[in-house]
From TrEMBL:
Record organism: Streptomyces laculatispora
Keywords recorded for this protein, A-Z: Glycosyltransferase, Membrane, Transferase, Transmembrane, Transmembrane helix
Class in the EC hierarchy, top level: transferase
Protein name, UniProt field: Glycosyltransferase family 39 protein
InterPro entries in alphabetical order: RgtA/B/C-like
Stretches the record annotates as Disordered: 385-413
Catalytic activity, EC: 2.4.-.-
Membrane spanning stretches: 91-115, 127-146, 172-199, 206-227, 269-289, 296-319, 325-346, 358-378
A GO term for molecular function: glycosyltransferase activity
Domain Glycosyltransferase RgtA/B/C/D-like span(s) in chain numbering: 73-222
Any matching Pfam family: PMT_2
């Protein structure tokens, strides 16, 4: 409480500077981990993917079998990223460090982004705590600094799209950010309909500009692949269902309850599309009812996707981390700590894809914390006044002007 009271006395620039420093410390921590640890098997796999992309190109990579490697299930922009990182590694830089840099930098940006989102909807002290929470989030440090992958980058672009559309009134840039999010990792596709619905609620000009930004970037990045190897893109990326391990959430609980393997196989097969549709419907519903709370709707949708996911991977825990801080500080803190412990235990074990019993139990606890946090966050979104998009607070009150207080509360109050 004392920290929050002191934060309320700061102007926005000072509050933003505090978050910026925390984000910089968080980035340095992640990069030190990346530079001094080998990382999980994905680091080696990405290095091999990068070599293959260099040989076959970011477009033709989808049609070539890669013996000894898992399916190349990354959207087109990831191929161009790997091409650039491989070029840097040939100059003498460590690829193991490079591959974990995009996610670490994305977390840096996301901390500032969450601060900007929350300060428009809650007390400034809450916004500072949420921004710092993202910067030092245990689960994000573990997944971005140690694991890498591109999940954090995709999430940052998805939240940026919501912020640009709902708060910055920049639908063209929001459309570009939305297309970038699914071009790095396909996971944020579940929030795209919600973004279009919010744009629609903003009026025809907003919808047209958002669609133009989205369509132009999508055509630029996805167009060459769709024209050249559409079948391979569909099989590798669009229909990818994740691994078949029974480690997380619904599949884990089904396994514990002793449900038939046919049920679990169905859940991880065609059933995962049904769960994705539930997430899409939830996001669209929230965006239609509360377009001004679009960042919270996007955060809740991504969290729900993780909650209902039939696949399991420690890097997937990233999906809900920043979004839960948008929903509320305590929700974000609880999830980050529970999921962070899951990630640390998982990465400390013999294999990141074979969790020991303790990791499984902590993961189940993290799933429960996420469920409770999402329920509380959605309730706050619905409690917000409809059709009243947030207005940015003044950067600095004029000298001698009376100070107005803003009620403290959750990130979506």
């Amino acid at each position: 409480m004392g920290i929050r009271m002191r934060c309320e006395s700061w102007d926005v620039r000072r509050a933003r500077a505090v978050v910026l420093v925390a984000a910089a410390v968080g980035l340095l921590t992640r990069m030190l981990i990346a530079a001094n640890t080998p990382g999980p098997a994905d680091v080696r796999i990405f290095a091999e993917f990068a070599k293959a992309v260099t040989v076959y190109g970011p477009v033709r990579i989808y049609e070539h079998p890669l013996p000894g490697l898992p399916v190349y299930n990354h959207p087109p922009l990831a191929g161009w990223m790997l091409l650039g990182l491989n070029g840097l590694s040939e100059l003498g830089m460590s690829f193991a460090t490079l591959i974990r840099s995009p996610a670490s930098i994305a977390d840096f940006c996301c901390a500032i982004l969450v601060f900007e989102i929350v300060r428009r909807r809650a007390a400034q002290g809450t916004a500072v705590l949420c921004g710092v929470g993202v910067a030092v989030s245990p689960v994000l440090i573990a997944t971005s600094g140690y694991h890498g992958n591109t999940d954090a980058v995709a999430i940052a672009f998805a939240l940026a799209a919501a912020h640009l559309l709902a708060d910055r009134k920049s639908p063209l840039a929001a459309g570009v950010a939305a297309a970038l999010s699914i071009s790095v990792k396909f996971i944020p596709v579940v929030v795209i309909p919600a973004l279009f619905v919010a744009a629609l609620r903003g009026g025809r000009p907003v919808l047209v500009r958002f669609a133009a930004g989205f369509g132009a970037l999508f055509a630029l990045v996805w167009g060459p692949v769709l024209v050249t190897v559409p079948q391979h893109l569909r099989e590798n990326v669009l229909e990818y269902a994740g691994g078949t391990y029974h480690l997380w959430g619904l599949v884990r609980f089904a396994d514990v309850l002793g449900l038939p393997d046919s049920v679990i196989t169905s859940m991880q097969g065609g059933g995962h599309f049904l769960f994705a549709l539930v997430c899409v419907a939830a996001g669209v519903w929230l965006a239609w009812l509360r377009p001004g709370q679009l960042p919270g709707a996007v955060g809740a949708t991504l969290g729900l996707l993780l909650l209902l996911s039939t696949a399991s991977g420690l890097q997937y825990l990233t999906w809900a981390a920043a979004g839960t801080f948008v929903l509320g500080f305590w929700e974000g803190l609880a999830y980050s700590c529970a999921a962070g412990l899951t990630a640390v235990l998982g990465y400390s074990g013999r294999s990141a894809v074979r969790w020991n019993e303790l990791t499984l139990e902590v993961g189940a606890a993290g799933w429960t914390v996420l469920a409770v946090g999402l329920a509380a966050g959605v309730r706050r979104i619905l409690a917000a006044q409809p059709d009243t998009p947030p207005k940015p607070p003044a950067e600095r009150a004029p000298l001698g002007a009376p100070r107005t207080s803003r009620p403290s509360g959750s990130a979506v109050n």
